[in-house]
Amino acid sequence: MKNLKNAPVRKKVDVVVCGGGPAGIGAALSAADKGLEVALIESRGFLGGNITASYVETCNHYLWDHPFEVTGIYKEIENEYKKEFKKSDDIRSDLRAHRFSSEYLKIFLDEKIKQNNIWLRLHTSAAEAIIEDNQMSGIITHSKSGFEKILGKIVIDCTGDGDVAARAGVPFEKGRDCDGLTQPGTVNFRIAGVDSKKVNQILEEEGIEYFYEILREKLNDGSFDPGFRRIVFPFGRLTEGGQISYINYSNVYKIDSTNADDLTKGEMMGRERVLKMFNFIKENMPGFENCELSSIAPAIGFRDSRRISGQYKLTEEDIDEERMFSDNIAIFPRFYDMLSPTGTWDDHIYIVDLDKQYGIPYRCLLPVDVEQLLVAGRCISSTHKAESSIRAISACMATGQAAGTAAFRALEENCRVKNVDINKLQTELKNDGVQLEK
Ligand SMILES: Cc1cc2nc3c(=O)[nH]c(=O)nc-3n(C[C@H](O)[C@H](O)[C@H](O)COP(=O)(O)OP(=O)(O)OC[C@H]3O[C@@H](n4cnc5c(N)ncnc54)[C@H](O)[C@@H]3O)c2cc1C
After folding, report:
1. Rounded to whole angstroms, how far apart are CA atoms 321 and 119?
2. Which percentage of the chain shows pLDDT scores above 70?
3. Which conformational region is residue 246 in: left (phi greater than 0), alpha (psi within -120 to 50 degrees), or beta?
4. According to the model, what pLDDT value does residue 1 have?
5. Cys-Cys with 192: which of 78, 88, 294, 405 at CB 3.0–4.6 Å?
6. From the CA of 289, how far away is ligand 1's center (Å)?
7. 424 near 49, Cβ under 8 Å?
8. Of all atoms in ligand 1, which is nearest to the CA of residue 59?
């Protein structure tokens, strides 16, 4: 077998961003906007992370109808997207939160990457960290082209699972303290052939609870047994053409998204549960009598896995007490969404308390032990419960934006990422429209 050390150098840039989900998009766009040369490495054939790969289209549903506004790159993307794709063909009138179309968003993000001269490599995984004396200088990728080196002065891990940090030897935690269990993985699905007029009328007059009640009744009388307890099935865009763009129900439990055997099991079990739920909906929900299963999301989606050990660990106390930090790089409302890790519903936590806001410190993005590596997105340094807040898509994009901007500051100041001047970093972020104080 060839020695990975001899892999050819494919690209040399200022910043290597690994993973093109919400965090990676925030990191790559912010670094490129400052004039840095950026390589963006994504293992799938498209960008967007969970939004596109797992049909998580309604990113900020919990913020709808509340004055808290997400700022920075997330807001810019949403506004620009809306100019081009409006409401993504959505005719739902009960919940007016913005929904991306995962398909339009893929095309929109391709365009953003081209406009910003980012070197993008799809179908390519960050496989190994190039590290010497605890200092990162790039990654080794694996793709159809074989193993290749992508060298960078700074690496940003936005893989969701902290793959690069783990390969570099950064310690991490996974799951909750009591048993290591994470939230479930979910295989979302899309249906076509819905009577959209009828469904929209029910949504308008009775709300989505009408459909949830049918589910609960059948769960309670035992006539529907999906194999776990989940009493809601949020669904996405309803189009005039009779499509519901996602149904979020089919959970699989005790699956570790950093283990390929588990991923295989999760995808297969998820698909089984998709079919079960689809049949149930078709047989029991008014307006769905003639529907068909039109697609299953390209990948099982995960809400948490590795959380790296960073220079600060964000906790639920920080969130509950609305702590702000001298190195805030984003603020976010007190919101927790922790799906039951056991599938019983008893340990489900959902808190939307938007008048309270907390700060996310820069130190959560700085791993212990390894230099010139930043981490952004759902795998930053936090407790398990705090992660169920900062995992929100717009928060992940915000930590990504902060990481990309910090990389720029470090190169400007010719210093290590851990030593950037916090005031200058915060000024830069504020100038880019990011709100850092309540
Ligand atoms: C079913 C479901 C519903 C959800 N609902 C909501 C919601 O309503 N609102 C909300 O805000 N959040 C929601 N979330 C959570 C949210 O989707 C995630 O927390 C968020 O997408 C995390 O962003 P990220 O960029 O950190 O990681 P991800 O979205 O996981 O993106 C990581 C990216 O990195 C790529 N990647 C991974 N490993 C590698 C590697 N080794 N090399 C190269 N590329 C790699 C992946 O392909 C992916 O594109 C939901 C999650 C799920 C699964």
Report:
1. 42
2. 100
3. beta
4. 58
5. 294
6. 33
7. no
8. 9
Residues with C-beta less than 6 Å from any ligand 1 atom:
18-24, 41-44, 49-50, 54, 56, 58-59, 61, 125-126, 158-161, 163, 186, 188, 248, 301-303, 377-378, 391-393, 396
Mean per-residue pLDDT, 248-270? 98
Q: For position 7, what pLDDT does the model report? A: 96
Of all protein residues, the one whose alpha carbon is nearest to atom 20 of ligand 1 is: 393
Axis crossing angle, helix 393-413 with helix 422-431, rounded to the nearest 10: 120
Q: Tell me if residue 347 falls in helix, strand or coil.
A: coil
What is the 8-class DSSP label of residue 229?
-
Contact 378, 365 (CB under 8 A): no
CA 252 to chain centre: 18
In a mutational test of the pocket of ligand 1, which residue from 186, 393, 397, 401 has the highest number of ligand atoms less than 8 Å from its CB? Answer: 393
**Residues 46/124, Cβ–Cβ less than 8 Å:** no
d(CA 98, CA 82): 9
Q: What is the C-alpha separation between 127 and 184, in angstroms, rounded?
A: 25
Q: What is the pTM of this model?
A: 0.98
**Letter for the amino acid at 105?**
L
Mean pLDDT of the region 136-154: 98
3-state SS assignment for residue 48: coil
Domain spans, the chain: 4-178+304-431, 185-296
Q: May I ask the CATH class of domain 4-178+304-431?
A: alpha beta
Alpha-carbon distance values, 71 to 143, 160, 423, 430, 436 (Å): 35, 21, 19, 10, 9
Q: Which residues contact 241 (CB under 8 A, 6 or more apart)?
A: 89, 192, 196
Radius of gyration of the chain (CA): 21
Task: Give the pLDDT band (50/70/90) at residue 172.
Answer: very high
Q: Do the Cβ atoms of 56 and 50 come closer than 8 Å? A: yes
